[in-house]
TrEMBL record:
InterPro entries: Prenylated_rab_accept_PRA1. PANTHER family: PRENYLATED RAB ACCEPTOR 1-RELATED (PTHR19317), PRENYLATED RAB ACCEPTOR PROTEIN 1 (PTHR19317:SF0). Belongs to the PRA1 family. Keywords: Membrane, Transmembrane, Transmembrane helix. The lineage of its organism: Eukaryota, Sar, Stramenopiles, Ochrophyta, Eustigmatophyceae. It is a multi-pass membrane protein. GO terms for cellular component: Golgi apparatus; membrane. It holds the Pfam family PRA1. The chain crosses the membrane at residues 106-139, 159-190. It comes from Nannochloropsis gaditana. This is PRA1 family protein. The keyword Transmembrane applies.
Length: 256
């Protein structure tokens, strides 16, 4: 009888201990979730710097769209048949056409190769994290930084962080790996531009990307816009003329 009572008490004590431990873990989990949800970018670097960063990212996205990097071409089309160019003229035409048509694909390919080279090298990844931390620390520091009695401007902070990043990448050898992966990506891109033959579908893709059917409206809007600059309009006209010439050349060829 006493043995049964002792076993029952031990069971109750163990159950209470497990229940208390589970409650503590649940409470800790709630604190972590609350901290993760409540801690945002604005809490780290402030409202003003967050708005400025978002504005810069939006401007960068608009520039990418203006350069024709809205969306990549289908990858099955990108990885189509490859042929050696017959002569120098054909090589130049391929380089021009493929660059116009596959700009977004090439950027994604280059970014993928460099990202993979970083992922498979934990040391390089750690160095990049340290560099990113230095940038975040200097640019996101809430109080003004003063060196030798002089307040640092945001531009000077950026230059210091960039210099530290360059020096750290250089002495750790991470820069060599990044340059190697970048060179590999550029070599693959140039090889694809050289060996990917032009076809009739490329002409339609170039015309679609240039929005030639809407170009008169676009030109009128640019002329009437009070914020327009002559350089921007001339650049747009030059790009349209180049795309028209390429499309006309491809329609004249009709085949590779």
């Amino acid at each position: 009888m006493k043995l049964a009572i002792l076993l029952a008490r031990n069971s109750t004590t163990n159950h209470q201990a497990h229940t208390k431990q589970e409650y503590q873990l649940a409470s800790l989990g709630n604190v972590i979730v609350h901290f993760s949800v409540s801690m945002t970018m604005r809490d780290v670097i402030g409202d003003f710097k967050t708005d400025m960063l978002m504005s810069e990212m939006q401007d960068f996205t608009e520039k990418l769209n203006k350069w024709g990097l809205k969306s990549p071409r289908p990858w099955n089309e990108f990885a189509g048949i490859l042929k050696k160019p017959k002569n120098k003229q054909e090589l130049e035409e391929r380089l021009q056409t493929n660059f116009m048509l596959y700009k977004a694909n090439y950027i994604l390919l280059l970014a993928g190769i460099m990202s993979w080279s970083v992922i498979i090298s934990p040391f390089t990844m750690g160095v990049l994290f340290v560099c990113a931390g230095v940038f975040a620390l200097l640019l996101g520091w809430p109080q003004p930084l003063e060196i030798f009695g002089r307040l640092l401007t945001p531009k000077e902070k950026t230059m210091i962080a960039a210099s530290f990043t360059f020096f750290l990448l250089l002495i750790t050898g991470a820069m060599v790996k990044l340059i190697w992966s970048f060179s590999l990506g550029v070599s693959l891109i140039v090889a694809h531009m050289s060996f990917r033959p032009r076809c009739s579908g490329h002409r339609k893709g170039i015309i679609d990307d240039a929005n030639l059917s809407q170009s008169p409206t676009k030109i009128v809007e640019d002329i009437e816009s009070p914020n327009n600059e002559d350089s921007g309009l001339n650049s747009y006209h030059s790009e349209i003329a180049q795309l028209r010439a390429t499309a006309h050349s491809m329609s004249r060829d009709g085949r590779d």
